[in-house]
Amino acid sequence: MKKLFSRVSIASFLALVVLLMTTFAIPCAPAQGIVFLPNPPECWGVFVGVANFVNWPGLEMQYADSGQQDLYNKFVSVWGTDHVRLLTNSQATKSGILNAVDWLASNADSNDTVLFSANSLGGQGPSLDYYFWTYNSNVVDWNNDISSTELANAFDSVNAAKQVFILSFAKAGAWEGHLGGSGRVILAGCEASGWGYWDDTLENAVFVYYVIDAIDNFDAADTNNDYELSAEEIFAYASPLTTGFDTDNGYLPAQHPVLDDGYSGDVPLISEFVFNNNTSLPPGTVV
Asked: Among 97, 136, 154, 226, which one is least packed by beta carbons within 10 Å?
């Protein structure tokens, strides 16, 4: 167990708890009742999972919806329900997803961090662009898919200095060509020519499973022991485990996740603080 403080006085302990909960408990958080910074950093997230496609009856991307639900659950508990949105299946139309990006643009400012995570089918379309499928993708054209150019253009309106993308679909590594840029960190589940896999024993897409596993194993993933789990550390944890799982279970060619990092330094997403208060109080003391 990590211990930041021990054997402090009650007054000092309570003061430290108030200060840390309002400024350092997570890297960025919804505004609280007590705020010591004039414009505290906040985190905003959009999670997209498309397992079913209305125009493709019988086609299914297993666990794309439930996997994003699981990932959403990890962040909503610390960022707040008013700072994250989950779009699955019928909610994840092209207009619904782009509207969610507009929501990020209208809320996030330059001090903030935004996270966009998507799990669906993907591939290469016309004009050397790359696409992921939405709930209402068409059979005969690409008009209802979202291209790497479209998503990049949409995020140009997002003012947050730190922008993180977790992409789990085929050819995700190719998205850095349009989506990459200063302040943007892309965690792609496979290389530009690669495919993504899901697994019934994991009940998730393999890469998404190990991204969640990094959060669940915070101490192991926090390799620099700074009590902050960054996007870069999550990738460093999830990438070799993804490739190893594919190889061990016969998913060939195995996924080789790709990191495109346009941010100088690490982008923290979640922090961990554990307090150990071992104070002895005089008999009859009421706190």
From this structure: 226
Q: pTM of whole model > 0.70?
A: yes
Cβ atoms < 10 Å from Cβ of 123 = 15
- Picking from 142, 117, 98, 105, the residue whose alpha carbon sits closest to that of residue 50 is 117
DSSP letters along 42-69, please? -EEEEEEE--B-TTSTT-B-TTHHHHHH
Residue 261 near residue 232, CB atoms below 8 Å: yes
* Average pLDDT taken over every residue of the chain: 87
> Can you tell me whether residue 115 is helix, strand or coil?
strand
* Joined tokens for residue 73: 């659950």
Closest to 127 (Cα-Cα) out of 155, 150, 154 = 150
- Identity (one letter) of the amino acid at 76? V
User: pLDDT tens across 229-243, in order?
Assistant: 999 999 999 999 999
For residue 225, CA distances in Å to 215, 218, 222, 239 come to 14, 10, 5, 19
